[in-house]
Amino acid sequence: MAPESDMKLLAPGVFAWLPRLGSTWGMANCGLVSSQGETLLIDTPYTPALTDVLLDAVREVAGPAAEPAHVVVTHANGDHTWGLQQLPGVEIVATRAALDHQCIEPTPQQVQALIHDTDPDQPLGWYIRRHFGRFDFSDVQVLPPTVTFTGRYDLKVGSIPVELHEVGPAHTVGDLIVHLPEQRVVFAGDIVFAGDHPPHWAGPLENISAACERILALDPEWIVPGHGPLMRPDELRSYIAYLNDLADNADVMHAQGRTSIEAVRILLDEDRYPGLGLPERLAITLGTEYRHLDGGSAAPDMLALMNHAATIAWEYSSTA
Ligand SMILES: [Zn+2]
Fold it and tell me: Which residue range or ranges hold the Metallo-beta-lactamase domain (predicted)?
């Protein structure tokens, strides 16, 4: 079943595709740049079926013959890349570091198995079904980028200049943002979440704040977050304040000898961030921050972090 979605015009030839499904996982925003018969996509949705919905919307606004020749991948999480197979022969541009993340992301088959083979009466199985059970990953093939870069990469779509800036490690090791200087639009990928707590996997939090400051320095009129509604710069400033507050709290509670899960419970019990959805994701972002505070350089254990989030969601759903 197709989700409700909007293809929002941000400037001539520049669109944001925003699926609307409330607070949940996996419904990522995508971008479209179309000029003089050339078409570029920014990210794909989570599954081939959802990507077909996006491509229908692309043809509606860019013309029935529109064929994206390039996809820019903001980072290698599945919810931004697992639709690529619907675009055979397309050039896939990503940072070189995005390949490193691709190695630790659970495969589509592993996620499919988590949805079906875990115990629904335990936190992880309950949580995964609730947030990922709507997706079918059985036929997904993970495609690597065909063009990689470090630092910065520039291209042109028709007459529209497009700048790619590497800003990772932040949300993952391989993040980039897409800047359209003439249209004053930044596609932020999962550096920025709107409306819900973000799950940051690579960190530390100061890198994510720094990436957000780089976005502000580009003086955009619109910021397209990886998930949630469009943002203006003032909303991005509020998000930076949230990230910095979270980092300060992690510092204090780590020094007090509390675990990351204990820190999450304290923040939730004092209702420190009212109005933000999916508060259990604090367990992921704080788990990541603690890994850095502990001096760890190992890659994140994504399944262990997800298990912590599920545990928090389970606890707070039964006490709500
Ligand atoms: Zn995402």
Answer: 27-227
